[in-house]
Design goal:
The structure is a single chain. The protein has 216 residues and is mainly alpha-helical. The chain contains 10 helices and no strands. Helix 1 crosses helix 2 and helix 6 crosses helix 7. The protein is globular. It starts with 9 loop residues before the first helix and ends with a helix.
């Protein structure tokens, strides 16, 4: 039995794009990029995971093509971010909360990935993995462009694991006879809470044994 999910709402996808666009701009500022670099990094961060999801699910047109206003919104955010001291001050305040912003983007895009995967007829486990890909791949591309080992591949705070567990919570809703809206909210809260707790409290997966040997 495949859980039935409501149609993907534009509000959820738009919120995911907004959160990840801000995350990309903050990373660009740290790397001291110009307006072209900032806009590029914002687009890659916001659209990378969703584009790979659409490729894997053979969805056309890509979500940012059918909702092209997302690109214009990203551009409108980038220009004042780069050239306005006041806008940059707001972004600087967001920088101190960048983990929270990034967590929102991770949670929102993970949820959209699960929904699209189920609508495409995927079983629960592959649907959860599509959710993880959707939530994390934009961040992978962002980190590669600024010449960093992607966060998802480094020992440290939970990232992909938080996304995967949150997706499982969403998928468990119909099996537990929980209204899907509540399951979605619980999955969203699970991802954000795990990501934030891992950063603030040091919650993390055990390090690989070879890292322990390297410290000896």
């Amino acid at each position: 039995m495949r859980p039935e999910l409501p149609q993907l709402t534009t509000a959820v996808e738009a919120a995911a794009v907004l959160a990840t666009t801000i995350s990309g701009m903050i990373t660009a500022a740290r790397a001291r990029m110009d307006v072209v670099g900032t806009f590029t990094l914002a687009l890659v961060t916001a659209f990378g995971g969703g584009t790979l999801r659409d490729v894997l699910l053979e969805r056309r047109p890509f979500f940012w093509v059918s909702s092209k206003e997302y690109v214009f919104v990203a551009l409108l955010l980038c220009i004042p971010f780069v050239y306005s001291r006041r806008a940059f001050a707001v972004a600087d305040a967001l920088d101190r909360r960048s983990t929270f912003v990034d967590s929102l983007g991770l949670a929102l895009f993970s949820l959209t990935g699960v929904r699209y995967a189920l609508e495409a007829g995927l079983p629960p486990l592959p649907a959860a993995l599509i959710g993880v890909v959707t939530g994390t791949f934009g961040g992978v591309m962002r980190d590669v462009l600024v010449r960093e080992v992607p966060t998802i591949f480094r020992p440290g705070p939970l990232y992909a694991a938080a996304s995967f567990l949150g997706c499982l919570v969403v998928l468990a809703g119909p099996w537990l006879r929980i209204p899907q809206s509540i399951a979605d909210a619980a999955g969203f809260a699970t991802i954000v809470a795990l990501r934030m707790a891992s950063v603030r409290l040091g919650l993390r997966l055990p390090d690989p044994h070879w890292l322990g040997k390297a410290k000896e």
